[in-house]
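Lab notebook, bench 4. Still working through the backlog of constructs that have no structural model yet. Next entry is a single chain of 443 residues. Request: give me the structure tokens for it.
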Amino acid sequence: MGSIDTPTITENGTTQSHTAAAAADGDQKPLASSNGAPAEMTLELEATKKRRASMLPLEVGTRVMCRWRDGKYHPVKVIERRKVHYGGPNDYEYYVHYTEFNRRLDEWVKLEQLDLDSVETVVDEKVEDKVTSLKMTRHQKRKIDETHVEGHEELDAASLREHEEFTKVKNIATIELGRYEIETWYFSPFPPEYNDSLKLYFCEFCLNFMKRKEQLQRHMRKCDLKHPPGDEIYRSGTLSMFEVDGKKNKVYGQNLCYLAKLFLDHKTLYYDVDLFLFYVLCECDDRGCHMVGYFSKEKHSEESYNLACILTLPPYQRKGYGKFLIAFSYELSKKEGKVGTPERPLSDLGLLSYRGYWTRVLLDILKKHKGNISIKELSDMTAIKAEDILTTLQSLELIQYRKGQHVICADPKVLDRHLKAAGRGGLEVDVSKLIWTPYKEQS
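Model written out:
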């Protein structure tokens, strides 16, 4: 229905509608639509709706602003799309990469989370990269390149693109492990029969994984393990470390690799786990030994690697376990009478943990040591490779090159400042509780 104009009285006593009076005053208002909105506004809204509809479905590669879990909008790139069941022809969900953040935060989002007014035209990425690089300074370009290959330094550009294409969409969204439900970070190449599973259920002791909760419950009634298979080589309080031989416990080793790949972007999945030893750290209680994290190492490394992979599970992060695992790997190196270094590339979080560990260990020695000390002596004391010591001290600006040799400059005030910046150390490894024979001697 149209609205009825309220009559008003004019000076000569005749009645006149508001509309007519306004026209008489020369102040004609725009015509209203049937819903009361001005016609121009209605036309504008219709045009906006048509423009948005013409964009849908969004193409892979589209850049747009997306509402994240913090309630704010962040720039994203559409990586993949999938149709919504029982939806219309343009009803899709979109898998997006937040360009400001690490790939671990990539996720599926609904259309209403996207600000369609911010859509950027899809362009050829090679052309876009070329144009962008022309506008960048050399320093800016180097920083961007470092960000793009973070954790993938060993890959050339073609291999990196292939890796990102193959692993671009997380196949498993969450896992249940013990008393925790954990959101995953990255793709993991589980067997094809698990392709349709968004959630997997892991036995926290043998690491077998299942599609349904009922399957896990049946499995738990039969599984007689209460700790990782292998030898307990360390126990201090509620913490235990188990050494698992990949050759003797092949299925456990492979399952551990599947699990770890969900949280490590750079990791190469090894199906041949025979060549590796796995050191699994656990918190123990009356129900059993619950995995906190692990590291692996090759049984025979020609490059002096004392660690191949390292992971602290998300529920146990920021508790000092990462540095504990690193320290433990060096204690094993000391027992072997060798210096060691982690296999490259390191993940972003792994690199942070190592830098923190190296910094704290070296600064503690320099602070207590009286007189001169060489990099070789530091390496012998810590089992840290000389190159890692050198790069750490250089990053702290504690080393100078004089008369053809490196000289350590250990001013006590500078050391204190760096120690404070390094933050707290991890949990201490009580070497007296370590009962272990190197693999070479076991053989």
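Notes after review: Confidence is low (pLDDT under 50) at residues 1-31, 126-153. The radius of gyration is 31 Å. Flag for follow-up if needed.
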